[in-house]
From TrEMBL, chain A:
PANTHER family: FE(3+) DICITRATE TRANSPORT SYSTEM PERMEASE PROTEIN FECD-RELATED, FERRIC ENTEROBACTIN TRANSPORT SYSTEM PERMEASE PROTEIN. Gene3D superfamilies: ABC transporter involved in vitamin B12 uptake, BtuC (1.10.3470.10). It is found in: Cell membrane. Its main location: membrane. InterPro entries: ABC_BtuC-like, ABC_transptr_permease_BtuC. NCBIfam families: PRK09777.1. Keywords: Cell membrane, Membrane, Transmembrane, Transmembrane helix, Transport. The gene is fecD. This is Fe3+ dicitrate ABC transporter permease. SUPFAM superfamilies: ABC transporter involved in vitamin B12 uptake, BtuC. The chain crosses the membrane at residues 57-77, 86-104, 110-130, 137-161, 181-202, 227-248, 268-288, 295-316. Belongs to the binding-protein-dependent transport system permease family. FecCD subfamily. It comes from the Bacteria.
Amino acid sequence: MKTLSLSALLLCVMCVLVMMNLSFGAVSLTFNDLLSGFQPTSEFYFTIHEYRLPRTLLAMLVGGMMALSGTLVQGVIRNPLASPDVLGVSHGAGLAAVLLMTLYPDVSVYWLPWTALCGGLLAALVLWLLCGSHSSAIKLAITGIALATLYGSLVDFLMLTRPLEINNALLWLTGSLWGRGWDQVTMILPWLILVPVAFWLAKRINLVQLGDDVATSLGVSIPVTRLAVLAIAVGMTAACVSICGPIGFLGLVAPHLARRLVGGRHQILLPCAILVGMTLLLLADLVARTIDPPIELPAGIMTAILGAPYFLWLLFRTK
Amino acid sequence: MKSFLQKLPFLGQCIALSFLLCVFAWLSLFTWSIIPISGTQALSALTSPNPNNIAHRIILDLRLPRVLIAGTVGACLAVAGAIMQGLTRNPLASPSVLGVNAGAALGMATVSTVAPWLGVFGTSVAAIIGGAITWSLVMILGTAWRGGNEHGRLVLAGVAISALCAALTKAMIMLYEDQAVGVMTWLAGSVADARWSDWQPLWPMALFGLSAAFLVGPTLNLLNLGEDSARSLGVKLGLVRMICSVLVLILVGAALSAAGAIAFVGLLVPHIARALTGQDYRKILPLTAIMGATLVVLADVVSRAIIFPMETPAGAIIALIGAPFFIYMVRSKTS
């Protein structure tokens, strides 16, 4: 009952945020303008249909997928500090995408998600090779962050040696939703197919949480489950990164908030984490857009300002 | 090369490394210039300057302050890293990893965007205050003073605070400035725009910080024995930590206000110095200063060469060497 009412509340908050995202910005619209704005005859049709609606949708999709992949990673590695961006997967995917953009500027953007996916998988593989499966929570996190630093400095280097497109690339890399439209929404839609697969695996993730021995004796193949879940998480992260760059700390914070709200059962936790992620990114993007219009801050900056203190608090509590 | 240096007595090492520094500084004076300058011209500009000679003007007005600032900044950051490693007994400690750089950058960005009338002195003070706040936060959150095997936690606390400060800095800069390129260059750390006006506030702070750092060397040696032994040998732990922290902040603040946030010098160089002389901080600190200067001067030369005639920030070059080293250190030093 508590879970149900909490989810309903979360949905309400999210709907309010969606409305606010659609109505506030460089031009603020009233509620009536907003409703009539969906008709092609309205003067605000262009603003809403071409700018705010795709952007809001994208914030929901990306926020939800980032949160989901964070929950999956934390679920199977049993490490409260893990998330795709802490483990360097986001930055690996970002590096691959930047490499593609700088080395082959003429290639179609539809290759970006796939390149990012390769980069993310490679980054995950490198981390796995360096750490193995028996590292402590802190060592895994710190190796991941060291790798992320390396990828980040490579990206910086690439961008600084090709300064012409740096303004655009900088906005892209700090995790911004600026200038994204229907193209990007259609690019990310196919990846939603991974969401039901993740839900299907929820029960196994619950068993993995019990510990390797217990899970094995209950008939769950630990390596297969872990590999499948991590692959899904990396895939979703890469898709998000190729659309709007690494949005820091979202995949770390959302699962923790969701777990505090509804507990650790993944059948409920996964949908709840998606809702929390959507809400957080909608909020971050709203604040980033409206803080000083028409200047826009990247939403990734807002999530970092929210998420970094939370990470510190987690670190303080982790034994 | 390394084993040859290791066998030399300490004074010999100092002389050999200083010679290397002088060679790189000399190279930095004349190489990769749009107007061709020869090596002998570089020397004659220093000994008998002729204001009508264009090569001499370039060397004296542009290249010389650049080399001096690069060297001083490198020495400051490297010594700050060595002091931090001695103080926390954590091999991963350094101004960039523990968030002092990011905090100082945030302080500077705040002052230069919100209150630009405070001028150069104001930004330096803001850098020191910003660095001090993050340094104390990291220390409290990472529970560093308890020492022991908490290497990783301290670093993670530093990384998180760095991320927070970096986000705030970027937000502030984007709200107030138009050009992202300049900001990126500054955040990566560059000495390309160094002039004599930057040298004026840098050298007194650097001179004071470096000479005071050499004086705390013996105390750092005692600290390395462990807290209890140090205390029983008469070291006032609170006072020493206070003084060392202030020194670190002065050094980092001076370096940042002159050249931006050059990362990894403070992590990389003390370890090389330790490999050369062992654990004695009386020897590590001078060697660290010389090698830090050499590294940044060298990186500056490379940064001009890499996409000549354009400039890459020297900090970006050092990060390419420093980040893999950071991974290596994490692998070998955390459990």
